[in-house]
Specification:
The complex is a heterodimer of chains A (110) and B (118).
Chain A (H helix, E strand, L loop, with lengths): L2 E3 L4 E5 L4 E3 L2 E3 L5 E7 L6 E5 L10 E2 L10 E3 L8 E8 L8 E2 L3 E6 L1
Parallel strand pairs in A: 2-11
Antiparallel strand pairs in A: 1-4, 3-8, 5-6, 5-9, 7-8, 9-10, 9-11
Chain B lengths: L3 E3 L3 E4 L5 E7 L5 E8 L3 E10 L2 E4 L6 E7 L2 E6 L8 E8 L13 E2 L3 E5 L1
Classes of the chains: A mainly beta (110), B mainly beta (118).
Chain lengths: 110, 118
């Protein structure tokens, strides 16, 4: 079964501090992992995907198959990073269905 | 610029009513999805469609049905609304991928419909 777990419902850090949003997954094959973000009063949108190996808005995420994790990191948080973050998994290569985690609400304090 | 629109931002219905939620996308996407978004549960897939008149159940299809008569429109139907269907409903669309070749395509989401069933 495919499952995505985000252990933190809420995360609060100060501006300029490092941020790490945790994501663990359960899948027997080779998954594709993604982070989606929803800013206040905006639509849910793709932030980044592991296969691209890119940094978006200063965020990076590394797929660790040994630990079955895909944590989202940013070295210096900014107030505009406050949002709801969802980790998501696609279980079959090229399949379009996603399984989402429970979400983490990130608040950056000034 | 991809545009996914949903017919209502807020909807209040009574228990037992039949409810229609409409979603329209203007980018000629083959795939369309319906999710519900609940605090602490994240997004859960109700149904998706990969072509006109084609549909596939998601993780929580009970109490819902869908209709896709035209490529740009995907409707979610609550045959007899119940209070436990009070939720935020999100529609999304995407291009088709290529199974086995790793071409996942980004899902584009609508603004959501907050449905309250009294």
């Amino acid at each position: 079964a495919q499952r995505v777990t985000q252990p933190e419902k809420l995360l609060s850090v100060f501006k300029g501090a490092p941020v790490e949003l945790k994501c663990n997954y359960s899948y027997s094959g080779s998954p594709e992992l993604f982070w989606y973000v929803q800013y206040s009063r905006q639509r849910l949108q793709l932030l980044l995907r592991h296969i691209s190996r890119e940094s978006i808005k200063g965020f990076t995420a590394d797929l660790n198959k040994g630990e079955t994790s895909f944590h989202l990191k940013k070295p210096f948080a900014q107030e505009e990073d406050s949002a709801m973050y969802y980790c998501a998994l696609s279980g079959r290569r090229g399949a379009q269905k996603l399984v989402f985690g429970q979400g983490t609400r990130l608040t950056i304090n000034p | 610029d991809v545009k996914v629109t949903q017919s209502s931002r807020y909807l209040v219905k009574r228990t037992g009513e039949k409810v229609f939620l409409e979603c329209v996308q203007d980018m000629d996407h083959e795939n369309m999805f319906w999710y519900r978004q609940d605090p602490g549960l994240g997004l859960r897939l109700i149904y998706f469609s990969y072509d006109v008149k084609m549909k596939e159940k998601g993780d929580i299809p009970e109490g819902y049905s869908v209709s896709r008569e035209k490529k740009e429109r995907f409707s979610l139907i609550l045959e007899s609304a119940s209070t436990n269907q009070t939720s935020m409903y999100l529609c999304a669309s995407s291009l088709p991928g290529t199974l086995g070749r790793g071409t996942y395509n980004e899902q584009f989401f609508g603004p959501g419909t907050r449905l309250t069933v009294l």
